[in-house]
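Researcher: Structure prediction, please.
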Amino acid sequence: MQEENNLVPQLRFPEFKGGWEKLIYNDIFSFNSTNSYSRIQLNYKRGLVKNIHYGDIHTKFPTIFDINKEQVPFINPDIEISNIKEENYCQDGDLVIADASEDYNDIGKTIEIVNLNDEKVVAGLHTFLARPKLKMALGFSGYMLQYSKVRKQIMTIAQGTKVLSLSTSRLGKINLKIPSLPEQQKIAQFLTAVDTRIQNLEKRRELLEQYKKGVMQKIFKQELRFKDDGGKEFPDWEFKNGNRLFKSISDKNHNSDLPILAITQDQGAIPRHLIDYNIGVTAKSVSSYKIVQVGDFIISLRSFQGGIEYSYYKGICSPAYIILRPAAELNRDFYKFYLKTSSYIQELTKKLEGIRDGKMISYKYFSEIKLPYPSLEEQQKIANFLLAIDEKITVTTQKIEQSKTYKKGLLQKMFV
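Model: Predicted structure follows.
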């Protein structure tokens, strides 16, 4: 009875009863030699074959792989390959497994091919191809191999120091448990629906981000103008040197009790502990750190790449950074957007000042760049418009994370 209970998932569709079958990887799949082409240079017709390599699996492709939805690269046309037998091309239901990685979380990641649509695709660099020996429901195997107990087994058998790798002999001995074919189909259909929702949300976020980028470009080039509440045109924009709008602040009057801020390109200035950013500092060095107030802007070593950062937090940061605070009446949100635009970043790159550990924009050079200064009312309207887009992106991102958490919970409960 105890054995039977161990073979029953915690969450199950009510029409299914009984325990799942205990097998090992080799009982269900055979490993195909298609990936041998990635280790030696062969020859065949150019431009007709696509390939999935380990980097695609790590970063690009979903677990259930539909070629109609994914952009698969053709094999480098400068490489001629031949002698690939028909059975060595990928087939629906095949698994493509990443057999190399520098990260335990990526090693052995797997995609299952469910809709090749007669495309010629091979498993590429640093991958294995596994083909079902048994009749399996399309999609089920890909989800099964995401299950945490299976992933832990795969990470345990990985070998290597800097670069991890897998062998088919070790992979073949991993324990797997499978239900009847109808139950497999039900599970795969249900999880595919969850994945479809996640993919649709990610597409919505991508479209919102593209729209925001495009509309910002038009706004700051003044190709798109707002009107006041009475429907009248706003005055022409003024352009002022950076030092007329922002002053450099070097306030070190603190007791080292404020949080240390990391200056990031994607989250602005944020307490280090919120992003697992751990660098040892001494009490003496922290005493020289500058205070950052909420609403300050920071010029960092990477501002020539990602623009000038904004702080939502009060804290302290390295004296290497330049802290900017408004020296005139202005809308911080307006400049929060403008100082991250590609056009402004291009201006910054013209003002690079070499330093020992990288490149830095000095306050002097920042001051020489003219910044737009619309009327305060127009600044507010522009800021509100862009903040509303940001809010939609944030809400969509939250829904994505909630859906991913929901899926993770399902994977924990729907498999044995």
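Model: DSSP finds 14 helices and 23 strands in the chain.
Researcher: Thanks, that helps.
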